Each structure stands twice: as C-alpha cells, then as structure tokens.
Amino acid sequence: MSVLELKGISKHFGAIQALNDVSLTIEPGAVVGLMGDNGAGKSTLVKIIAGNFPPSHGTMRVQDQEVHFHKPVEARESGIEVVYQDLALCNNLTAAANVFLGRELRRGVWPFRILDYATMYKRAGDLFKELKSETRPRDLVKQMSGGQRQAVAIARTRLSDARIVLMDEPTAAISVRQVAEVLNLIRRLRDQGIAVILISHRMPDVFSVCDKIVVLRRGTKVADKEIAKSSPEEVTALTTGALERA
Q1: Sorted alphabetically, which keywords does the UniProt record give (predicted)?
Q2: d(CA 228, CA 155)
Q3: Which of 25, 90, 151, 244 is the most exposed place for a label (fewest CB within 10 A)?
Q4: Full-model pTM
C-alpha cells in the first residue's frame, strides 16, 4: 500500500497555472528526489501536500484514505511533517527546547502545571541517538553547525508518528562534511520506513540518497522514474527543456 498518492493535482493562482495534472505515488520508506528549475512548481506541490493550501483540482490519498487538508495541522495529524529550508529554529533555545517547540511536555495538575524539562531532555537525547547524531539536548542552537541544526529539525518530525517527511533544500549552504551528515539522517528515516520527499538542486545528493526521481517543468511532471534508470545529464536536459520528457 502506498503512503501517498496524488492524482491529477492542479493549482492555479488567478491566471497563473502553478501545477498542471500532476500524479505521483510514494511507497513507505522511499526517498524521492523532487527536482526542477525555479518556478517549476516544486514548492507549490509540497505546500499542497503539507496542507498550506488545497489543490484547485485533483485528489490526494494518505495510507489509502482520501484527505482534504485546509491547514498544516491537519496534514501533521495524518503523519506528514515538513523540514523547511530556513528550519524555523530559535537560536537562543536549546536543541531539546526546539524539538518540543509548540509541543512542550508539562507535569503537575492545573493550575500548577510546569514544563517537564527532564522528560524533554531525555526524549530529545533518545531521538538524536536514534538518528546517530552528535547533537546534544542541552546545546544551544546558535552554537551548532548546519548539519546539527538539520538533526534538530528532523528530530522534531520524529515526535509524532510521521509517515512522510518533506525536506526543502536541506543541504544548501552547508559544508561537505555536514552534507554527508544530513544525507545519513535521511537514510535513517528511510530505514525506519518513513518516506522522504527531498527537494534539491544538488544533483550528487539526489543521486546518492534517492530511490526515485520526479522532475517538474513549468508545473508539469516530465519524469517519474527509478534513480538507477536516470542520470544527472538526463535530469539537466529535462529541467532545461532540452529533453521533453522521460
């Protein structure tokens, strides 16, 4: 059974057609590279999956159940988590505080409920171990490398029973060593049966970690194939329009 199925997804903003009849199926534990030039429709597609806005046409199914999201919290309740490019982390807080941001644990009885820091530190530490990250729960985010920051953002997706994690350019503007760390984090999610949609312009990253590649051009899907049956040269040709479709 597929974890996510899109059928005929289209989206227009007034006269602008951002997506045109996009269909896509993703299996549990699959890592799918979503590629295309700026304005190809990648962000629009991800925002529809994440519940930021509904499609103009088409249907979406999660775990074989048709869904209609009106806001991001509904997508999250269906097991869809997003790691945005800016990560949305608070620099002045610890790693654990960021993992639980907006979902803080409390103990005691109202009106004397207080934050349960001990449990949050332990749970965050367990998540970092699970991801095999060197990040520590009490470390301040402002003192972290790009790779560690990604680990915090990814650990946050593991608090819920995530089935799909959408990642927007996770390896942009970080060092080679940190890129390797982030790709390993993606592999950890895959090994736990979580599907990952990876938006990236970095061809080596996509071909290193993805099982399948989907290419959009001007809002239309022009490729949807196993990574082993494609090549960076083919993806470049599809992105630029030198090749119509694959």
Answers
A1: ATP-binding, Nucleotide-binding
A2: 29
A3: 244
A4: 0.88
